[in-house]
Specification:
With about 280 residues, the protein is α+β, with helices and mostly antiparallel strands. The protein has helices at about 5-35, 40-60, 65-85, 85-100, 110-125, 140-145, 155-165, 210-220, 250-260, 265-275; strands at about 130-135, 150-155, 165-170, 170-175, 180-185, 190-195, 225-230, 235-240, 245-250. Strand 5 (about 180-185) and strand 6 (about 190-195) form a beta hairpin. It is elongated.
Length: about 280
């Protein structure tokens, strides 16, 4: 009697393995996306998908000249991509080997971290110390982090002040070697300092604002990061977000802005609710 159900069992098995196949491919592509997130590899993936979509359209409509041209290009592009993205491919294989494809720890925003940041920014504003602090959001900032010095330390006001601060010695004032770059905060930690940011070419920005503000705006134009910048000349606090630069913040308005944009304070609220 069992043999009567054999076709049904085979059909169910085929459906199961097809779904498993799709699931595994989806997991693989998602893992690759996570590794390449924050690098130029993401833009290339988008371009590759567009190329494949165009290729399918060309084949459907039998556009022979375009099809021949795309076939010639495909081989050259494949080799060029391997050479161009050798570092990303190496990092991908290394992450797979370490089992870090999916298990990167993500830390929630902490209100204590916000207060440490505000203490440092207040110090910068009072003493007219130039500073740029970048907060990573959905867009990965890996390629910018690589331009600086890896810190990977807990957020604290003394550390931020040490990075951007000025020290008085015999013969004059001495700035930290990381003073001129940006600090990038990722997953609740100071990921790196002395990082180089893209400088905006916008003509809308005031001529009174210098390179720090242009770099902050450039970062906000290219990514979804929130950037806090303190002017060395005036001590004024500004925030760059969504491709625009907003000026004249005080500590209270900055606290409100960062709480809204980054969710600072969530951890404390959750702990309070758990205790209740």
């Amino acid at each position: 009697m069992v043999w009567l159900y054999a076709p049904l069992i085979v059909k169910i098995g085929n459906i199961f393995f097809t779904m498993l196949d799709i699931f595994l491919i989806s997991v693989l592509f998602y893992g690759i996306y996570r590794i390449l997130s924050g690098t130029k590899g993401v833009q290339v993936i988008v371009g590759a998908v567009a190329f494949v979509a165009l290729y399918i359209v060309v084949r459907i409509f039998q556009l022979h000249t375009c099809l021949w041209l795309m076939n010639q290009i495909a081989g050259v592009v494949a080799i060029a991509l391997i050479v161009l993205f050798q570092p990303e491919i190496r990092e991908l294989l290394s992450s797979i080997g370490k089992g870090g494809l999916y298990f990167n720890k993500h830390q929630k925003s902490d209100k204590k971290d916000l207060e440490e940041i505000l203490k440092a920014v207040d110090n910068f504003s009072i003493l007219h110390t130039g500073a740029i602090i970048v907060f990573e959001r959905k867009d990965g900032l890996k390629k910018y982090i690589k331009t600086g010095t890896t810190i990977n330390a807990k957020i604290s006001a003394p550390l931020l002040i040490a990075i951007f601060g000025c020290y008085h010695e015999q013969g004059g004032s001495v700035f930290s070697p990381l003073h001129d770059g940006a600090v990038i905060i990722k997953n609740g930690k100071i990921a790196a300092a002395g990082c180089y940011l893209p400088v905006s070419g916008s003509t809308q920005i005031s001529r009174d604002l210098g390179t720090r503000h242009r770099a902050s705006l450039g970062m906000a134009e290219e990514t979804d990061a929130i950037v806090v910048v303190v002017s060395e000349e005036t001590g004024k606090i500004s925030v760059a977000k969504e491709g625009k630069l907003f000026t004249n913040y005080d500590i209270d308005s900055l606290r409100d802005e960062l709480t809204i944009q980054l969710g600072y304070g969530d951890t404390d609220e959750e702990e309070d609710s758990d205790e209740n």
